[in-house]
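Retro notes
What went well: the complex prediction finally ran end to end.
Inputs used:
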Amino acid sequence: MMHIETPRLLLRWFRPADVADMLEYRTDPEVLRYQTLDPSSREHAEEFIAEQSQNNIDKVGAWMQVAIERREDGKVVGDLAICFREEEPRIVEMGFNINRSLQGKGYATEAATAIAAFLFRQRNVHKISCLVDVRNPASFRVLEKIGFRREAQLRKSYFDTIDGDWFDEYIYGLLAEEFEG
Ligand SMILES: CC(C)(COP(=O)(O)OP(=O)(O)OC[C@H]1O[C@@H](n2cnc3c(N)ncnc32)[C@H](O)[C@@H]1OP(=O)(O)O)[C@@H](O)C(=O)NCCC(=O)NCCS
């Protein structure tokens, strides 16, 4: 069971009824622009949600999708993805998506801050790490607002099939002690 409330949001596992909300942003080329995610068909989204609704926070080495629900009306405005590293589960990889029409309202920052607090305080996580395309300032701005530090730049480490070329990525990291400080 996953249930994390913030002033505006509820973070929880996906449910079958979320498929339309998920398709709104997972078929949007702008949202998928700097990611390796493929646009979802309805069928794929249904299967994906069926899998993801069975999630268990104790799972290691697999990406788990957390729905970001707006409490006011129950709409799923986006998702957060987390993965406890196989070889070191005290380190968690993270990513996020927000519906384009609902970006710029602080939802990603509010959701990622809440999941960070949960991971550090309740799951004994030591570090959260994110890999972001250097051309995607909105994503690293969210991370910097939460206190993540840019730790490295990986040169030409990501092949962008849209541009047909290699691009750099940043690794961002946040330590438990920095978050609490
Ligand atoms: C990254 C993303 C999740 C942010 O969601 P969001 O809910 O709009 O984020 P927030 O509103 O919490 O914060 C966005 C911040 O980025 C800033 N920002 C947005 N676009 C920007 C740009 N082009 N250049 C610089 N800063 C930008 C905003 O001004 C805001 O910062 P501020 O509060 O200092 O003004 C959203 O843009 C998205 O879904 N992008 C596509 C998916 C993606 O690339 N995900 C990242 C993979 S890890």
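What we learned: The mean pLDDT is 96.
What to try next: split runs per interface for comparison.
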